[in-house]
Amino acid sequence: MERSPGEGPSPSPMDQPSAPSDPTDQPPAAHAKLDPGSGGQPAGPGAAGEALAVLTSFGRRLLVLIPVYLAGAVGLSVGFVLFGLALYLGWRRVRDEKERSLRAARQLLDDEEQLTAKTLYMSHRELPAWVSFPDVEKAEWLNKIVAQVWPFLGQYMEKLLAETVAPAVRGSNPHLQTFTFTRVELGEKPLRIIGVKVHPGQRKEQILLDLNISYVGDVQIDVEVKKYFCKAGVKGMQLHGVLRVILEPLIGDLPIVGAVSMFFIRRPTLDINWTGMTNLLDIPGLSSLSDTMIMDSIAAFLVLPNRLLVPLVPDLQDVAQLRSPLPRGIIRIHLLAARGLSSKDKYVKGLIEGKSDPYALVRLGTQTFCSRVIDEELNPQWGETYEVMVHEVPGQEIEVEVFDKDPDKDDFLGRMKLDVGKVLQAGVLDDWFPLQGGQGQVHLRLEWLSLLSDAEKLEQVLQWNRGVSSRPEPPSAAILVVYLDRAQDLPLKKGNKEPNPMVQLSIQDVTQESKAVYSTNCPVWEEAFRFFLQDPQSQELDVQVKDDSRALTLGALTLPLARLLTAPELTLDQWFQLSSSGPNSRLYIKLVMRILYLDSSEICFPTVPGSPGAWDVDSESPQRGSSVDAPPRPCHTTPDSQFGTEHVLRIHVLEAQDLIAKDRFLGGLVKGKSDPYVKLKLAGRSFRSHVVREDLNPRWNEVFEVIVTSVPGQELEVEVFDKDLDKDDFLGRCKVSLTTVLNSGFLDEWLTLEDVPSGRLHLRLERLTPRPTAAELEEVLQVNSLIQTQKSAELAAALLSVYMERAEDLPLRKGTKPPNPYATLTVGDTSHKTKVRGEGTGLLGSLSLPLSELLVADQLCLDRWFTLSSGQGQVLLRAQLGILVSQHSGVEAHSHSYSHSSSSLSEEPELWGGPPHITSSAPELRQRLTHVDSPLEAPAGPLGQVKLTVWYYSEERKLVSIVHGCRALRQNGRDPPDPYVSLLLLPDKNRGTKRKTSQKKRTLSPEFNERFEWELPLDEALRRKLDVSVKSNSSFMSRERELLGKVQLDLAETDLSQGVARWYDLMDDNDKGSS
Q: Low complexity bias located where (predicted)?
């Protein structure tokens, strides 16, 4: 090493004294103060230098007084000066603390071993990981490599920021077109690796390392936006955390490792020294906020579940799987209770000790949940359930922190941590855990849910979830991982400009967004999104490709998730054509579904006869035809005691009042209203009302029906939303205990909406218990037709339950092999399919059972063997019908004037294939039955008759008319007419009161069964006349209508309180109708 001429000869190590030297006697920086060019002579400042230093010091102090002078000049209060002074002192204090922290950290890293030995007795937390944990190794050789590579890494970072990051920033916003990096220096202090831990026993195709890194650097990065004369930057920062490095896959060719994945298991700690305009971020309050925002950005890039993937070989397979692998599992966290918490609330200046208002924060990685607050309680009961995705085992920890809610700052009550590996090992962990840093315990039940690619487990999981009471969200049955890869040939914006595409993915009310890719119609995202699914059989994935302004839609895709259930390995990996887009616009995504299965001996699913645990016909059964060992053939099914005990809950969503206004116009200057709709969740099913536009007091008047059991703890969850183009706004929620409704049978209440300032919802809930008698069916059909609303599906008249137990003598496959049977049951347009054992073998037989047979059967039940239509094979099943009688409809039915048809009740459920492999998940089929009227045998007039029900619904203030049908219409030409019915409220003849049915083709006895409503008071309705005309199109080319007959009803002479269906004779235009 060359020495300057002015330096003396440096002594060799042999010339140094053997006694240990105190580092404080000779600081390392002492020699740095000598000037090599001075020949060893100190160069003190001259007189001019001293004068300049005095003037500079005086000028700085004078600048401090300028704000005071300016405040007095403009007449401001002295309070502004004091506020500015306090702001400056706070900024100075934060800045000094950061610099002091940086100096201490640099000193620690400069002489780690010496400081460790010196402070060994002082503090255990200052020890590096290689001292604290014996399985963590010190890798000083790795630090030497990093130190030598550090300058070249700085050159790479400068090139990366200048050539990649800066153009991306300039293209993201027109105001940043002059953005540049003016200085990029990583400094002389390299990143240090405090300890390395290698995890043995993991998968053989990967190497897993944990690097405890610490960076206390003199990095300096300056940026400038020349257009606005804005300069900012960073000068010095600290970063401490555990970086996991995974080397996978291991391959048989060089370089042996296919790719390197890096990520932080937990959020690292960060401290930044700002310069330039970003000095303002060191102001108290903004300092922690700015660091949090930057940590959020780092977490979105390098904290689980996000990771950085560096492929080392070309054409690496499953890059998407390596970049965003499937979770290792799901942990269902039941936050049950806590006990023995410390009291934090004080009154009368601490003289009176109160209690606490505890709530809990549950955290796993970036997934955080907050429980509700329990007021004035030291032994709170939360009873809440959360589901978290586990990505790395070992490494991730479940953390629960308990706080006392206060108006200013919440008090800390304690925390507990648990490694997820213990939950994986136990399967189900239910225990009280002590709180560290406080007193008390918290009660958790932790369940490890495995991810299965077996769709046959779904029904079992859904059956179990229906009996689980979970809040704030229902339990999930599956997860969906969406790998968003790329799109091609998206449409251009106006003026043939390239779009800035981004993607919104939605499942029900959960929406996630991708990043925006600027100035291209063939974007590449390479992102992964994860969703929890409550019922994959009924949910859909909605994909919207939009410009980054969210105003222009570039394409859309709706994918039913049931399609994944039939795909191999529950996976779809392909191109999808976009709708509402260009002719060649398409999107490449990969969708992977996994069923969440709790495999624990503590969880026992109920068994039913016919299940493998109760009686498996195929296992160890004696040879067919043996009379010695064969069990006697049963004559009837043996369902469990819960079969056929379900109820139907009829939910009337009537109206709401005082909803909050969410719509804003002109950038929020003009306050609008809301477009509310209601979402209902119960028993694993979801319902949604129609949207009422621009109304804070909407009236929906919709009816929904759901089959429910008597399992305790179920709740009806109701949420109100404001419909928007992008994301619907929340307007409130409420919950109703199902136990209350099932016990009382009826509930009609105004419910206050929670979590919003105002609003209430009017619901009417009625329990319908199936009755095994057909005598009341006629009355039920009439009542349902009168209370039916236009916005709701047709109301149910009966509940059908089918239990299939077994089959015998099924035909064999080719080669005398036994079949792999399953059954499909169909009623109308609804089908249910049992679990398939193996692959399908074609049709083994079918069975048609007219439901009219059930109406005449004893107790509306058939329980016996049925022979398949093929003549080979029999099925033992139980079909049970229950009539749903409403006790709170508010309608008086008149069965003597109303008749039902047996045609609809003779719809035939058909069973294809052999017997189902019955499990506890779906032993019954339930199908809601509807009705159709049939003509009565009564004399008709020369022009025919029309059947009407006219009724005034006082609760809704509506006049209701149901057009059931016509009979014996007159045929004027060679072909039968194409009739329809037109209704008009006289004396008004405008379109506002005109109603018209659909048109029936070539028939003299059309059936319509259509309902029409007019909103008007009862006194006004009694002053009106209902004009009913039966018409037919005269020809295809003509707009003329042929009048087949009409009838005019004077509503003042009609009993509007009864709602009776009657036949009316049709007359000519000059005559009046009569019944």
A: 896-906
- Span 490-538, pLDDT tens digits: 998 887 888 889 999 999 888 999 988 888 889 999 889 999 998 898 8
Distances (CA, A) of 636 to 741, 858, 885: 34, 15, 28
- Token output for 128: 């590096």
Helix (H) or strand (E) holding 114: helix 112-118
* Gap between the Cα atoms of 1014 and 1027, Å rounded: 14
Burial class (CB in 10 A: 0-12, 13-18, 19+), 862: middle
Q: Which two tokens stand for residue 881?
A: 């019908």
Collapsed DSSP state (helix, strand, coil) of residue 543: strand
Q: Please state the rounded mean pLDDT for residues 256-270.
A: 83
Question: Residue 191: helix, strand or coil by DSSP?
Answer: coil
- Smallest CA-to-CA distance from 731 within 764, 755, 698, 752 is with 755
Residues in CB range of 360: below 8 A, 6 or more apart: 335, 338, 370, 371, 382, 400, 401, 402, 403, 442
Residue 930: CB atoms within 10 Å:
17
pTM: 0.47
Note the pLDDT tens digit of each residue in 861-891: 888 888 887 667 888 888 888 888 887 765 5
DSSP per-residue string spanning 822-880: --EEEETTEEEEPPPSSS--S-----B--THHHHHSGGGEEEEEEE-TTSS-EEEEEEE
pLDDT tens digit sequence for 62-81: 666 677 677 777 776 767 67
Check if the beta carbon of residue 336 is closer than 8 Å to that of residue 349: no
The answer to whether residue 553 scores a pLDDT higher than 50 is yes
* Inter-residue long-range contacts of 298-301, CB under 8 Å, 24+ positions, other chains counted: 298/264, 298/267, 298/268, 298/270, 299/264, 299/267, 299/366
pLDDT band for 120, please (50, 70, 90 cuts): very low
* For residue 284, cis peptide bond before it (omega within 30 degrees of 0): no
- pLDDT for 690-732, tens place per residue? 898 888 999 888 888 888 887 777 888 999 999 888 888 899 9
Residue 935: the pLDDT is 40
Mean local confidence (pLDDT), 607-629: 35
- In three-state secondary structure terms, 953 is strand
Give CA–CA dist 288/577, Å, rounded.
Answer: 46
Is residue 620 over pLDDT 80? no
| Segment 576-583 long-range contacts (CB within 8 Å, at least 24 positions apart) | 576/543, 578/487, 578/490, 578/545, 578/554, 579/555, 580/553, 580/555, 580/556, 581/490, 581/491, 581/545, 581/554, 581/555, 581/556, 582/489, 582/490, 582/491, 582/555
d(CA 14, CA 961): 114
The single-letter DSSP state of residue 137 is: B
**Phi/psi of residue 52, nearest 5 degrees:** -65, -40
What pLDDT is recorded for position 557? 92
pLDDT at position 462 over 80: yes
Task: Report the C-alpha gap between 421 and 371 in whole angstroms.
Answer: 24
CA distance 208 to 1061: 77
Nearest-angstrom CA–CA distance, 674 and 677: 9
Spell out the residues 6+ positions from residue 957 whose beta carbon is closer than 8 angstroms to its own.
1015, 1016, 1017, 1018
Mapped to the 3 state alphabet, what secondary structure does 331-378 carry? Answer: EEEEEEEEECCCCCCEECCCCEECCCCEEEEEEECCEEEECCCCCCCC
Contact 982, 1010 (CB under 8 A): no
Residue 472: is the preceding peptide bond cis (ω within 30°)? Answer: yes
Residue type, 527: E
Give the helix/strand (H/E) hosting 1018.
helix 1018-1021
Which residue reads 């595409």 in tokens? Answer: 501
Do the beta carbons of residue 110 and residue 143 sit within 8 Å? no
Show Cβ contacts of residue 632 under 8 Å, excluding neighbours closer than 6 positions. Answer: none
| Average pLDDT of the chain, as a whole number | 76
Contact indicator for 715, 706 with CB cutoff of 8 Å = no
In what helix (H) or strand (E) does residue 223 lie, and over which residues does it extend? strand 207-225
